[in-house]
Fold these 4 entries.
Entry 1:
Amino acid sequence: MAGFGLPNFSQLTEAFQKAQQIQKDAVRLQEELDALVLEGFSEDGRARITISGNQVPQGVFLDPSLLAEESQVVEAAVLEALQAAHQRSTETMKARMEELTGGLGNLNMPNLLGG
């Protein structure tokens, strides 16, 4: 037991090192997500939206046959593709963040804080 109710110095050092590593990994992850391009498609495949891993829209691609349709059909197809791209980006970001923070559960915080 450390004196005066202070946490064990080696545990504190380990926690600090993990925090620094997570910060470095977070910067790297941000760069990877910025560079990642994901796609979402309408049900019929005639509308495609590209979006970054950080949910920044990258492009809209419409099949020429879709443009011959009524505006409501085009709008619905674009919305479907946008929703699919957004969902894929959100799921990718969440999975990558869980990978990054997975090591946090290994810290025994009550023992670190003298509890």
Entry 2:
Amino acid sequence: MTADQQTNRDVIRPAVIVISSHVVRGSVGNRAAVFALETLGFPVWALPTVVLPWHPGHSRATRIVPDPEQFSTLIDDLCGASWLGEVGAVLSGYLGNAEQANDVARLVGAVRAANPDALYMCDPVIGDMEGLYVPQGLAQAMLDRLVAIADIATPNVHELAWLSGAALPDSASVVAAAETLGPSRVLVTSAPAMMSGSTGNLLISGGQARMAEHRVIPDAPNGLGDLMAATLLARLLEGQSEEKALQLATGTVFEILARTARRGADELTLETDAQSLRTPMAMVNMRRVMTAAGRKRP
């Protein structure tokens, strides 16, 4: 081990509060995000918004949502915690009901009061190519209360279409919609790619747009968005540039997905592929995408 590697291992990293679903079996929601962040060296405060035996895509199953009053009281405890200054970021994902959006926003405010440099990443988990899979009121609360205050939002392209109210047939329309969403940085997953048979992760920030593309793997298991959001957040907290963070996070997700597919598993095999989080080897194609600011230049 080199001296630099030892120094990196000895660094005390900021804690991350992760607020999302919890499944007993599988690698989605908090199960994916917490594993990724802890593997990359970040302490995690994990708060479940709903508890399920497995992802609903497998079959219908019991759904346990915390009582709204109890959830709100728990948030009160966290807002007043003496350790809140340890927190460097909040990541929220799937919510169990619309009321939770107000509570999450309150916690984000408390974290920012304790640490003005803290980041808030909102992964608005509301739908896919088939449309919304949460009640419209919950989706609207996510937009109005959480996307509105986020430093970074990470919708998939279908979620961005609903959030922005725009049709998104190509990269240019995706960039335009992301630029009007509100957060200073928007990562759009499953974005239209330039290469045939590929998909992309498109990061729009500071008047620039960067695309990381990789080939499509059919019948992918759930949890890729959760994994991508957490891994990108970890890389940004490490101090990586946006382009490098996007490249590393996309490489990690593609590598784990490809290995999971080869095994024929129906859930991401994170526990077997932790090394892919630390040092991804998969190659992804990086390119720039024109933004509105770029089109206005002479």
Entry 3:
Amino acid sequence: MTPETCILIGAPVDSGKRRTGCLMGPDAYRTAGLADALRDLGHAVRDTGNLTVADHAADRDGDHPHARHQTIGWTTRLIAAAEQAMHDGMPIFLGGDHALSLGSVAGVTNYAASLGRPQFVLWLDAHADFHTPETSTSGNLHGTPLAYVTGRTGFDGFPTVQHPIPEERICILGLRSVDPEERAALNTTGIHRHDMREIDENGIAKPLAAFLDRVKSANGLLHVSLDVDFLDPVIAPAVGTTVPGGATIREAHLVMEMIHDSSLMSSLDLVELNPFLDERGRTAQVMVDLAASALGRRVFDRPTRAYS
């Protein structure tokens, strides 16, 4: 990968679920040294600060889904910010809960369409995030981004998805918590999905390599969405949706190094970091290290770090 202009976009979205704290995520990444890590790799870095939510109707106590109108406001703001940032470099969206990806993915896809190129999405997550507001029993909209960007119905009031992503252009790695409604819906799609049992049995490199080959063959752009809960909570505890049995630190770095080797990544989400739940910044630092791996850092370049 040649040096990039990395555009850091703080997206303190905290409306996608009821447990608050993700609004502190963008500044935690900054404090953990993300910009310096990327500059050390030869990339230019432009930090645009934190976005603010677009004007939206008021949410009322008891509204279902939770904070729907605020999430609509964030989606509107992020679509515009993402599309604009793609003209200037590689946007890195600093979350914020995973509801931010309703906007980030839709926005980068609009840009890809303007180039006449297909948009692909690599979803690194314990969850499928394929609910719609109609199927979600919790009403938590951080579980809906992939349904939204593929054009599923039920998102009344949200910006219209101008360019729905064909399902076969999406790959989910790390699944280990999928609701029955999502499972039934996923089984009717062409989404490539790989749960932790498959990864345990066959490794993580093979399905990822196959997906990256498809992106390359199609001359596609690749958006990578990295959720903290992709990782095992033993190494990344600062997330409100911990699910045991996630990716190890070595598996996660392998994924990121393979992404770098492919030279395909055109945009990145770092989502669901809740610093309130962290242990002395440990999870924020792990996520910064993973982002650096995706942008060129190798294991032998990484300093040994004690967290105690």
Entry 4:
Amino acid sequence: MQIYLDYSATTPPRAEAIALMQEVMVQQWGNPSSLHQWGERAAIAVERARSQVASLIQAEPESIIFTSGGTEADNLAIMGVARLYRQPQHLIISSVEHSAVSEPAKWLQELGWQVTRLAVDATGRVDPMDLQRAIQANTVLISVIYGQSEVGTVQPIEDLGAIAREHHILFHTDAVQVAGRLPLTMQQLPVDLLSLSSHKLYGPQGAGALYVRPGVKLRSLLEGGGQEQRLRSGTQAVPAIAGFGIAAELAAQELVTESERLRLLRDRLFEQLADVPELIVTGDRVHRLPHHVSFCLRCCDGQQFTGKTLVRHMNMAGIGISSGSACNSGKTVPSPTLLAMGLGDRLATGGIRLTLGHHTTADDVDWAATVLKQVLARLSSTCLLSV
């Protein structure tokens, strides 16, 4: 029995997205910047997708800038603002950002920028009052992740964005884990820049987008042909963008029912694992992504019994889970997110994540819980024997 429970890392592309991508590669393979009919057909595919992605977040199509994925969208937001300034300014981020935000911030700091990293509580949430106190006269951008990929915590983005707007400071959020799982209404949300990723909502890998509120200025990261309103030069990946578009449209249609279905399965899994002494719940149980279950492991040997150890054993049993953010899954180091939440080095190497999706059933959840308990019991016995 094969069960995939790593939907926060990537989702399988929908059959509709695959079919449309094949159609585009055969019939709309032209360069969308070309003026002839072949280029026009490709441009139509790109603009249709732009409207579909915009509809998912209740935005205007011209506010969508296509990128190669969420990482590029985050970089375009952070560095696109930074490049507007000749002199270093002040940037505020949270201490639980994805590396696509924290690494550009680190690089800016090396260039002389001031970077404030907001503390989080034990559940991984930012206190809006901490943001209020962190603002300086030269603060030009605030970036706080919407839904944390490793522990599932959803931030109070409306409150944080309102504070930024009150101070006339640009506000960016990485909504890669949220889009298609929770409603996003850009006409009401006080956000200026928002990152999206196709492969997190059953579209193909290699496509993403940055929402840019009308009137917000950025400097492009790439110089060249001036595509995407001169913010993202390079010939658009038309098939991937088309697949992204249809996936976004279908996600919007199914959002309410699928979010509730996933929430019920998520809570079912939490309940089945509630009495397992080796597991400590991480993240906020109330303000949480609907598909996300996460723990850290109580272990008697930090090297032998880590999150990665459990991932390997579950994989051998045919169940795919994650030891945290996919971008960090190859490193046996304490999770920066878990450290920021106040967990020590040993516990912070024991983070695991089980994320649910379209193909997850109640039987899958029940079997995964059973196998996880068996694996933990076996590993715990091994640890005890080695002491």
